[in-house]
Amino acid sequence: MFGALLAPAALSLLAVMFTDAKERAKAFGIYGAIAGGGSAVGFILGGVLTEYLDWRWTFFVTIPFAIVAAAGAFFVVREPEGGRNRSPLDIPGVVLSTLGLVCLVYGFTRAESDGWGDTTTISLFVAAVVLLLAFVLTEAKVKAPLLPLRVVTDRNRGGVYLSLGIAVIAMFGTFLFLTYYLQVVKGYSPVKSGFCFLPMVAGIMVGSTQIGTRLMTRVPARFLMGSGFLVAGVGLFLLAQLEIGSSYASTVLPALVLLGLGMGTTFNPAMSLPTLGIEPREAGVASAMVNTSQQVGGAIGTALLNTIAASATTLYVQDHIADAATKPQQQLVQLQGVVHGYTNAIWFAVGMLMLAALIALVLINAGHAGSEGVEDEVAVPVVAH
Q: Is the domain of 41 the same as that of 163?
């Protein structure tokens, strides 16, 4: 809950504090690089704590980080003038959106454990549709909506939210499978597995601070995002070739580098475009939708791809276990089934990234930002309350 408060606040502050095109590109590039660097620390530190102390320390360790971050926010960050929305809080919108998203995410989680035909699973999806439709109708009528519909119906913002959410579906599920693959199939320790993700993080940082930052003021956003998703898709295509005996250096390493470069390149326009040309008081809403698309996409991706992997593994084992006469052969079939399930889910993730690239190329029509901070082709309508 508190993480959901933090992310849009950070993005909206960047949006209203950095208005010059080049400075804006640099600021969002650094934001993406720090996010990537943080994930690297998380992978490695999580592995160290799990291996040498106890897995519970992965939760305790957030406390000192939170204290440092809170102190920095209190003493350093200053709110820009006119950045606060003083409209009354839309309570019905809060309740309907929260319940709708909870039902949607929990529905995918139940589908993973109980199946798509389970009564509870179906009921949750139906409830999610009803609640989210009611949320849309409410936002269209209230005077001070939680989410002004013009924020998401603008094709540029809508294209970013949709393509980013779909891309995150692919990424989060892949992280889960790759972690399982490295530790269960290859026998890597938690610490070694954490270090194995460093090339991806390096790719994210290079893609965000170098490629994305340099090209954001020169290349139309749709091409930058579309090409980034395609490069990430090539990385997942390599991961879809995984076998029990696959080498980290020849298969996993180049895949992670491409995945990091591709997603890092998309971060700048994906974070910057939704708040471009919007009123400062609505920057928080636009930023919150970026965070929402990521979080919902991550939750759906983990549950959905896990379901696909589990189903593929079960079918593979059922088809091949009869040919395994000895216990070692049966264990080998089980392991082959696990990898088969992973690769099936990763193929689905490849399709998700291709779809994200197509949506970005078709829906987003904003041009690049001019060198003097004036957007050449951007047509983002700003409508006052």
A: yes
> Following DSSP, what letter does each residue of 339-358 receive, concatenated?
HHHHHHHHHHHHHHHHHHHH
**Overall residue count recorded for the chain in this entry:** 385
**What are the E-state strand segments in 233-285?**
none
The structure tokens listed for 384 are: 């006052």
Sequence-distant (6+) residues with CB within 8 A of 154 are 380, 381
User: Which residues constitute the domain of residue 139?
Assistant: 91-145
Q: Is residue 305 within 8 Å of residue 353, measured between CB atoms?
A: no
Number of domains in the chain: 2
**Cβ-Cβ contacts under 8 Å for 258 (sequence gap 6 or more):** 203, 231, 232, 234, 235, 238
Bin 277: left if φ > 0, else alpha if -120 < ψ < 50, else beta: left
The conformational region for residue 115 under phi > 0 = left, psi -120 to 50 = alpha, else beta, is left
Regarding whether 258 and 313 lie in a shared domain, the answer is yes
Residue pair 194/48 in contact (Cβ under 8 Å)? The answer is yes
Is 191 among the domain residues? yes
Among 68, 70, 6, smallest CA distance to 294 is for 6
Question: 208: which 2 tokens?
Answer: 């965000």
DSSP per position, 288-329: HHHHHHHHHHHHHHHHHHHHHHHHHHHHHHHHHGGG--SHHH
Instruction: Based on the fold, state whether residues 138 and 186 are members of the same structural domain.
Output: no
Confidence (pLDDT) at 262: 92
Residue 66 lies in a domain: yes
- Identify whether residues 190 and 111 lie together within a single domain: no
Q: What's the CA gap between 190 and 211, in Å, rounded? A: 31
**How many Å apart are CA 342 and CA 337, to the nearest integer?**
9
Per-run averaged pLDDT (10 residues), the chain, 385 residues:
71 75 77 73 83 87 89 82 64 87 85 82 94 92 82 85 90 82 89 87 85 82 91 94 90 93 86 75 75 81 84 88 81 89 93 94 70 38 34
Structure tokens given for 322: 């009869």
pLDDT at position 358 is 95
Name the pTM for this structure.
0.79
